[in-house]
Specification:
Strand order of the largest sheet: 1-2-4-6-7
Largest sheet: 5 strands, mixed
Number of helices: 4
CATH architecture: 2-Layer Sandwich
Mean pLDDT: 93
Low-confidence stretches: none
Helix content: 40-55%
Number of strands: 7
Distance between the termini: 34 Å
């Protein structure tokens, strides 16, 4: 899984440059986010705009990343989901616990509001 960090004042945006978000690739992301959290970065924004497919393991990893972020006093925000992934998240009711935005700007604006 190809990941690129963009360090912004409000957060770290992690660009996921892989079209399939499933096992075993998502374990790389989990380790990557854990490393960021250990480095003191508490606000993680995942850019999933290049992801075409999310499997059940990928969904489970998103939930475990949210839990990991909360344990470190931070949060996880997602943006750029395609319609298929959005439907899967809605069908599993994970949209009730995951913070999901259409654009990076919306995600960062929401984080700025939390800081205030």
């Amino acid at each position: 899984m190809e990941l690129e960090n963009r360090f912004l004042p409000e957060c770290v945006v992690v660009d996921v440059a892989d079209d399939k978000f499933g096992y075993p690739k998502t374990l790389v992301l989990k380790s990557h986010v854990a490393h960021l959290l250990e480095g003191g970065h508490k606000r993680i924004v995942l850019n999933l705009s290049n992801v075409d497919m999310l499997d059940s393991f990928g969904l489970a990893v998103l939930i475990s990343l949210l839990k990991l972020c909360k344990e470190h006093g931070g949060n996880l925000t997602l943006y750029g989901l395609n319609s298929q992934i959005s439907r899967l998240i809605e069908m599993t009711h994970m949209d009730r616990i995951l913070e999901i935005w259409e654009t990076e700007g919306q995600a960062i604006t929401q984080l700025k509001a939390l800081k205030s």
